[in-house]
């Protein structure tokens, strides 16, 4: 495979991973709400969330492998685990490394969910709120398509979707907070 093909596939898997992680983030918020999303029952929302998260994780893995073998990116194994050491755009790649490190922790916690218990799982899963913005900023800073209109529109759309879901989650009438409100008014 040529270096141009590696670079194109590496970029493509990164952009597609951002879309899947946006879906996973948004549906993860929706799953906690206890409400139906569109016409999907809650269990279906959870299943789509899980699928999008796994697909996003697989695409991130492909993104890393493809760019590792690309001579232009000049990535070393240490760059996948330790942030801000890369020779190429160290700050932007470091944010990607942070996102990847968090993704590994969140994924492992999801796979061990039944062994961790709901409290520990939820505590670790809250890290996804840091993962997504790190991934977005990484894409905007390290991506060679970052200044193209199509990518800015895609990234902006992802940001609006996650911001909308987060705003919805922070509302006082969010279902998860119903018990807290009821206890506070007693």
Automatic annotation (TrEMBL):
Q: Which positions, given as ranges, span the membrane?
A: 6-30, 51-69, 89-112, 124-143, 149-168
Q: Domain of life here? A: Bacteria
Per UniProt, the keywords (alphabetical) are: Membrane, Transmembrane, Transmembrane helix
Entry protein name? Ferric reductase-like transmembrane domain-containing protein
What's the source species for this entry? Mycolicibacterium rufum
